[in-house]
Design a protein that fits this description.
The chain has 123 residues and is an alpha+beta fold. The protein has one domain: 3-Layer(aba) Sandwich (Trna Endonuclease, Chain: A, domain 1), CATH 3.40.1350.10. 31% of the residues lie in helices and 37% in strands.
Length: 123
Amino acid sequence: MGNSQTRSFGYWGEETAARYLERRGLRVVDRHYRQKWGEIDLICRDRQTWVFVEVKARSSHFQPSAVDSITLAKRKRLIRPALSYLKCKRLEGCAMRFDLVLIEAGGIQWITDAFEPHSHYTY
């Protein structure tokens, strides 16, 4: 896929994930929260918990698994902007979690509490 096709496919995946999560009771609050050190695809609320969602869409089963793409470095690029978001919104101390939505081979998989922020990250 070309760069613009890849971007369009990514937006399609994020929109698909947002609709999927909303049908399951989450409320999408923000999208594409960017900081210099990373980006959060979707920011949702699940009752009193802030949910930071990474969406991975794969067009082919020949590509590396979406789960395998969430490396330690990628986790750091998710944790830092999530903490920044909570701080900017004055939500320090609120419950938070990191979920993954994987769209592969025509199916959607939602992994809640996919990983924990490292203890050395603080608000």
